[in-house]
Amino acid sequence: MSSLARGKSTSAAEVTHVSSHGVWILVQDEELFMSYQDFPWFKDQPLKAVLAVQEAANGRLYWPEIDVDLTIDIIRNPERFPLTAK
Question: pLDDT per residue over 53-65, tens digit each?
Fold first, then answer.
C-alpha cells in the first residue's frame, strides 16, 4: 500500500500570538510577525477583531472587523511597502 503524495496545506491562516509589540500569524506553514510600528491598524483593536483573519485567494489576508486587507508579501517585507495609516 502506498500513500498519496502530499498536497498543498489546507490550514487556514491563524493568529498565533498577540503582544504589546505586534501580532504573529501562521499562514501557509510559515509564522510571520507584524509589528505595530509597521502595521498600526492592529494596535488598538479588540482581540476578537485581530483574531478574525480570513485567508483569501492569491496570498491575501483579510480582517473584516478592521477592514484591513494585506498580502503575505507585504507582511514578509514591510520595508518595501512603506505606506502606513495615520
Answer: 999 888 899 999 9
